[in-house]
């Protein structure tokens, strides 16, 4: 009888096993996985970049930052380009953000994670999960040994579906539904280091530095689509397209030959560059209409859905591993609390509320987003608005409060954190609404062709990391200030001013350094007069 049986040794399953074992040496853990290890470094999967929460998950929760630093290239934040007839516009970072985010060959990372856990949990490799039923409170899990086609039954208290897009348990319980996004993807890996400097060369008025530009998560923006370029190593680059099927025919990208033509029509500079370099094309993959979500992810019946088995909106910000990090961290606390004899019913409700709040945020982020990307100022504003809730609210909570919310039964603390998550979400919804309005569309602001972002802004948004449990209340003044910060952004944008000036002039820092920041909240004139000179 296992305490926890995980289906699927992908990213979510392997990290969950590692995290559980790190926190408890006597938990009986097994993973049922339908194939074997090692994988090829370039696997058939997608998801090759962390965002900040994923990065902090690897550092703070898993303790694997140093391990990752030795093995994978560090990501220089996100970098956005809009390519015009004979010029381009660019927004990105010159310096690394304080956390260590990475790009990685997915197969190599899963091989590494497997090596880290293989002697610490029981593996049933080449075993396929078939079904389960509950007998006297135990889960009887039926699996098929793919080697000799025999079947066997494993017993477990908790059952976790980490088997990805197959959504084994969500389908069994009829919980999964398609989201109102018609986004699909094609991607390929090339055997060479794609260097943006070669096809989007720096101009004399461009403030970006050369040597690291290519190590960002590159977004080439278009209406109804974007192209990612991720340097996975010196010699391998991942290139992919996410496109809205309401605007582009899937058939026009259904094969590698067609995708080449599509790229030639839509992103000619990239295709010309790839042709010229003659990099070998290592693979070509397709995933259609991937946006799905389940009604909830953790059940009182002691099963849970993590990662793609639960849901995905859109990979524009590499949020897949953020979601996995949050779910694994919460689930680890729930499993350990129950094992320690605690009642966890209310915490399960809190866990479902937390993740569904996060998914509501993603819904606002991505609904009707791609069709609006015709204007550079919109693209810049949207990214900065999204980050102005992601860092100050979500990342602040995840880095400081997520474990504390679930480690023991403190409904007052948990509800108060959820209050701020929802309060921040509420302001964010208003911001998104504003960005989508005619008022914003027709405000006549152009922004800047080259928009450098300050990586240190992270410290303004997240001034503390890893607040200890016994001081957990310290997060509330930060969240209060950060909600105020969001209101300042809202009123600044609403007044029709150039939001990029707000950012360039260091207003985020200046506001958070104020003892009485509320007075700037709906007073952009005052904000400019008092704070802009402090950049
Ligand atoms: C186009 C695209 C790009 C993306 N890019 C990013 C990105 O850059 N960054 C990011 O954070 N996220 C990204 N995501 C999201 C990311 O793909 C997911 O977060 C991540 O891959 C999910 O991992 P997982 O462990 O849930 O599933 P998987 O990695 O698919 O693992 C599931 C495992 O379960 C096994 N399995 C399946 N069925 C069974 C069975 N019956 N029995 C036993 N085992 C089984 C499979 O072999 C598999 O290895 C992207 C998503 C898309 C669609």
TrEMBL record:
The chain positions of domain FAD-binding read 2-176
What the entry lists under InterPro entries is as follows: FAD-bd, FAD/NAD-bd_sf, Flavin-dep_Halogenase_NPB
GO molecular function term, any single one: FAD binding
PANTHER family (UniProt xref): FAD-BINDING PROTEIN, SLR1998 PROTEIN
**This protein's name:** Halogenase
Read off the lineage from the record: Bacteria, Pseudomonadati, Pseudomonadota, Alphaproteobacteria, Acetobacterales
């Amino acid at each position: 009888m296992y305490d926890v049986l995980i289906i699927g040794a992908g990213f979510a399953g392997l990290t969950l096993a590692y995290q559980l074992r790190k926190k408890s040496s006597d938990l009986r853990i097994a993973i049922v996985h339908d194939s074997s290890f090692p994988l090829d470094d370039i696997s058939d999967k997608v998801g090759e970049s962390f965002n900040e929460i994923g990065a902090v998950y690897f550092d703070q929760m898993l303790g694997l930052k140093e391990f990752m630093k030795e093995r994978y290239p560090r990501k220089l934040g996100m970098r956005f380009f809009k390519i015009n007839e004979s010029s381009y516009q660019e927004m990105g970072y010159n310096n690394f953000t304080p956390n260590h985010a990475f790009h990685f060959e997915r197969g190599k990372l899963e091989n590494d994670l497997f090596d880290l856990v293989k002697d610490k949990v029981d593996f049933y490799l080449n075993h396929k999960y078939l079904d389960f039923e509950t007998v006297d409170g135990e889960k009887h899990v039926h699996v098929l040994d793919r080697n000799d086609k025999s079947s066997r039954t494993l017993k477990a208290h908790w059952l976790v579906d980490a088997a990805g897009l197959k959504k084994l348990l969500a389908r069994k319980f009829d919980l999964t539904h398609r989201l109102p996004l018609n986004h699909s993807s094609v991607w390929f890996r090339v055997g060479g280091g794609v260097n943006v400097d070669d096809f989007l060369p720096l101009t004399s008025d461009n403030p970006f530095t050369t040597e690291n530009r290519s190590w960002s998560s590159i977004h080439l923006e278009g209406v109804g689509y974007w192209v990612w370029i991720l340097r996975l190593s010196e010699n391998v680059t991942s290139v992919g397209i996410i496109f809205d099927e309401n605007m582009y025919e899937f058939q026009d990208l259904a094969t590698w030959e067609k995708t080449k033509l599509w790229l030639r029509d839509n992103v000619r500079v990239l295709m010309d560059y790839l042709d010229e370099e003659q990099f070998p094309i290592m693979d070509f993959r397709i995933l259609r209409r991937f946006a799905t979500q389940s009604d909830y992810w953790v059940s009182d019946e002691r099963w849970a859905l993590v990662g793609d088995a639960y849901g995905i909106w859109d990979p524009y910000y590499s949020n897949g591993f953020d979601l996995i990090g949050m779910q694994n961290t919460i689930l680890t606390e729930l499993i350990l609390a129950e094992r320690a004899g605690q009642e966890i019913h209310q915490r399960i409700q809190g866990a479902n509320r937390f993740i569904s709040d996060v998914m509501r945020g993603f819904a606002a982020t991505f609904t009707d987003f791609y069709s609006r990307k015709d204007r550079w100022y919109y693209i810049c504003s949207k990214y900065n608005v999204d980050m102005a809730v992601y860092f100050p609210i979500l990342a602040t909570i995840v880095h400081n409060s997520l474990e504390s919310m679930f480690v023991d039964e403190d409904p007052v603390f948990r509800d108060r954190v959820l209050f701020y998550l929802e309060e921040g979400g509420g302001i964010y919804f208003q911001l998104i609404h504003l960005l989508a309005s005619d008022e914003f569309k027709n405000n006549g602001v152009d922004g800047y062709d080259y928009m450098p972002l300050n990586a240190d802004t992270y410290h303004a948004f997240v001034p503390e990391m890893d607040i200890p449990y016994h001081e957990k209340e310290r997060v509330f003044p930060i969240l209060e200030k950060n909600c105020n910060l969001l209101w300042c952004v809202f009123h600044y944008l609403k007044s029709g001013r150039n939001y990029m000036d707000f950012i360039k002039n260091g207003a985020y820092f200046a506001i958070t350094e104020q003892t009485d920041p509320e007075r700037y909240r709906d007073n952009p004139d005052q904000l400019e007069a008092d704070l802009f000179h402090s950049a």
